Amino acid sequence: MSARGRMETYEVRVLHEGYSRLVDDVFEANCTCTLITGPYNIIVDTMTPWDGNYILKRLKEFDLTPGDIQFVISTHGHSDHVGNNNLFLSARHIVGRCISYRTTYFDEPFSRGDEYVIDPESLRVISTPGHTLACVTVLVKTDEGLVAIAGDLFEKLEDVYNEYVWLGAGSENPDLQRHNRAKIIQLADYIIPGHGPRFKVTKEMKEKFKP
Ligand SMILES: [Zn+2]
């Protein structure tokens, strides 16, 4: 039970705010790294291989070590989203739609596109292909509402208004991505995109993306 006297829920904290930008015609990017704490502790998207010490330092601020993390989720397999998965040796690893622990691979219906339920009350991973065909989104019920940790399904807030932002970031299937973007906008109260600050899903957005 929490201090508020009811069932413990999950909290979502951004450990690193992702970005992508052109600097003198050179594309620079790093991903958003998110920590979910609650009955399960989960880290979503682990940045580039050069960011391990940064992640350890941020975890320490919450009194956590890698051994306290039960799930590592990479929303997809690009290098800036998997770079430090190997810090988390007690965790089950979910990379896109592939689930493994050590050398064991789990043939879950998830790998064929079904959702993967971590906590039936509050936490599931759903398939949201587009940016890559194996992309997933983590949905977390919190006190503030439903938070979607969407990886590069959304690059950043700007792409809600300008398609070229997410198309420019690369899309293996733009039609699927468009469809899944609309689905997440309808579902979520907040979106944490792959390369920008978290944003609130407004009524106007839900209207604009109505199927
Ligand atoms: Zn990315």
Task: Describe the protein's topology.
Layout: E1 11-16, E2 19-23, E3 26-30, E4 33-37, E5 42-44, H1 52-61, E6 71-74, H2 79-82, E7 92-95, E8 98-101, E9 104-105, E10 116-119, E11 123-127, E12 136-142, E13 145-151, H3 163-168, H4 174-187, E14 190-193, E15 199-200, H5 203-208
Parallel strand pairs: 5-6, 6-7, 13-14
Antiparallel strand pairs: 1-4, 2-3, 4-5, 7-8, 8-9, 10-11, 11-12, 12-13, 14-15
Zinc ion (ZN) binds next to α2.
Structural notes for this entry:
Helices cover 19% and strands 32% of the residues. It is an alpha+beta fold. The chain has a single domain (11-208), classed as Ribonuclease Z/Hydroxyacylglutathione hydrolase-like (Metallo-beta-lactamase, Chain A, 4-Layer Sandwich), CATH 3.60.15. The longest helix has 14 residues, at 174-187. Residues 31, 78, 80-81, 152, 194-195 line the site of zinc ion.
Indicate the mean pLDDT.
Answer: 94
Tally of DSSP helical segments: 5
Kindly report the CATH topology: Metallo-beta-lactamase, Chain A
* Fourth-level CATH superfamily: Ribonuclease Z/Hydroxyacylglutathione hydrolase-like
Q: Give the C-level CATH assignment.
A: Alpha Beta
CATH architecture: 4-Layer Sandwich
- Please give the domain count: 1
Distance between the termini: 39 Å
Helicity, in percent? 10-25%
Strand neighbour order, sheet with most strands: 1-4-5-6-7-8-9
Q: Which range does the strand content fall in?
A: 25-35%
Name the poorly predicted regions: 1-6
Structural classification: alpha+beta
Order of helices and strands: EEEEEHEHEEEEEEEHHEEH
- Report the C-alpha radius of gyration, rounded: 16 Å
**Structure ligands:** zinc ion
Largest sheet: 7 strands, mixed
Sum up the overall morphology in one term. Answer: globular
Instruction: Give the strand tally.
Output: 15
Subcellular location: Cytoplasm, Cytosol
Pfam families: Lactamase_B (PF00753)
Catalytic activity: a ribonucleotidyl-ribonucleotide-RNA + H2O = a 3'-end ribonucleotide-RNA + a 5'-end 5'-phospho-ribonucleoside-RNA + H(+)
Subunit structure: Homodimer.
